[in-house]
Amino acid sequence: MNLNFKHLNALAEIAIRAARKAGKHISETRPINVQHKEGGDTLASQVVTEVDQQAQDIILETLEPTFAQFDLALLTEESADDESRLAKDYFWCIDPIDGTLPFIESVPGYAVSIALVSRSGMPQVGVVYDPVEHTLYHAITGQGAFRDSMPWNLPEAGSKVRIITDRSVAAYPYCGKVATALNASVKGQGGAVMNAIWCLENPPACYFKFPKPEKGGGCFWDYAATVCIYNELGAIATDMSGKPMSLNLPESIYMNPFGILYATDSKLAQKIIALKETLS
């Protein structure tokens, strides 16, 4: 099914409702049962709580009518990948709580993330809800980016570069070397979604992960919504070679072979890619 602007706007509104409902529940709930699941190679990628599943259930209940009406597939963190995303023209790509570790610790850095992605791997709609600040960000391909439903543009850039990243990445030697080369500060706290959003709120800023052989590096649902928002703002969201992120590959949902790069401007992105080549 070919989705036009009218369809995308309708689906964005439904995703916004789902994100707000899930975000409200998350903001009013504390986790009781913390478990570990198979995932990447960091603690942040392995912890899960009953609130993750509850938030997913809330989101799917709201999105349910869209699956049949628009012939959509589904990829979500708390359910097995049935690979329907490879057959349908579009799929919902959902992380009910990105940044579960900050959520467990009651510190900022977690968010609801919902994206609509084409079979080619291009995000068409991106919705992010921050339950801490109760702020909603969204974008629709070709129609701009919005903050709390108001048109959004990048704020004026400051003088010092910020690297905003995962705690595990902040501990890697390459992160420190890039920070030194850019004379940048480093903040390691949030999940992938809020790290990308915080960069947009605090330019010039960047969030990156170098490629690595180990499984991990985040999954499609960690990046799809914010890639859409970055694209609509004219910011940079690519893999570490500067190519568009491949967000619907058949062989793996993990991004570790490619790395990821978010930057608030192209010059900063180019510097990081060049540094990656010298440090690899």
UniProtKB/TrEMBL annotation:
Pfam family, any one: Inositol_P
GO terms of molecular function: inositol monophosphate 1-phosphatase activity; metal ion binding
Signal peptide: none
Highest taxon in the source lineage: Bacteria
Keywords in alphabetical order: Magnesium, Metal-binding
Gene3D superfamilies named in the record: 3.40.190.80, Fructose-1,6-Bisphosphatase, subunit A, domain 1
GO biological process: inositol metabolic process; signal transduction
This protein's name: Inositol-1-monophosphatase
Lineage: Bacteria, Pseudomonadati, Kiritimatiellota, Kiritimatiellia, Kiritimatiellales
Gene that encodes it: suhB_2
